[in-house]
């Protein structure tokens, strides 16, 4: 990777499953350090685009390049899915230690403790996965994804299955964690509020096949502001309204609902 290479470069990408074109054509460049949120109606191809960036799928047309190279599945990106996908027979700390070992890193208790502290879980390290809440499980998944010094963090609707309050807490904490690590992130959601709250840039996708219909920088303060204060800013409401309008207009094109 040269310093000039963007974290992600998507060029002329289309992806089809048999006769169904899920995505594209899409051109999208993600500079290093950006927190990009992809937002769009259910079925518009968000997960497909994320899987292409992770290297789990190969594009039918076009190219995906991460840090100057073709993405290698399981390497180069930490991934958080909607369901936490933890090993239920292991402890919270055991799940994080496994991710460290898998990456060939030291998995001593100090490394594990440091990661769990970063996601607010230092006091449940010895619990089993089934003894903690859904929100806590998703925190473990985030700890595991940031365990490795991957340049890229990919998150596919990680908070969609959580109750509203837990979701807000995790959004706030992710905002802080990502602010602290400065890691390039691509976060997929169908929630407009989540997009504005988390993103440094928001891209709205059309209904299937997903194409970029809006690409907006989110110029809101990223630190030193309380979440309620942030959500109360007139600029926040204006962005929500503009993005919400684009998402609804895109969804109406095919009669899908958001
Ligand atoms: N493995 C697959 N095989 C066939 N069709 C798929 C597959 N994955 C997704 N699709 C289809 O591609 C479209 C986009 O799916 P997806 O990327 O999951 O959208 P989103 O994440 O925005 O809900 C949908 O119509 C979906 O049914
Ligand atoms: Mg999806």
Descriptive terms for the model:
258 residues, alpha/beta, Rossmann fold, 2 domains, six-stranded mixed sheet, 8 helices, 36% helix, binds adenosine-5'-diphosphate, binds magnesium ion
Question: How would you sum up this structure, described in words?
Answer:
The mean pLDDT is 90. Helix 2 (92-102) packs across helix 3, helix 2 (92-102) runs parallel beside helix 4 (134-147) and helix 6 (192-198) crosses helix 8 (234-252). The chain folds into 2 domains: 31-57 and 72-76 and 152-258, P-loop containing nucleotide triphosphate hydrolases (Rossmann fold, 3-Layer(aba) Sandwich), CATH 3.40.50.300; 83-149. A hairpin with a 2-residue loop joins strand 1 and strand 2 (20-30). With 258 residues, the chain is of the alpha/beta class. 36% of the residues lie in helices and 22% in strands. The structure holds adenosine-5'-diphosphate and magnesium ion. Magnesium ion is lined by residues 46-47, 156.
Task: Give a short overview.
This protein has helices at residues 46-54, 92-102, 109-118, 134-147, 164-181, 192-198, 227-231, 234-252, and strands at 8-17, 20-30, 35-39, 61-66, 77-80, 152-156, 184-189, 201-205, 212-217. The chain has 258 residues and is α/β, with parallel strands linked by helices.
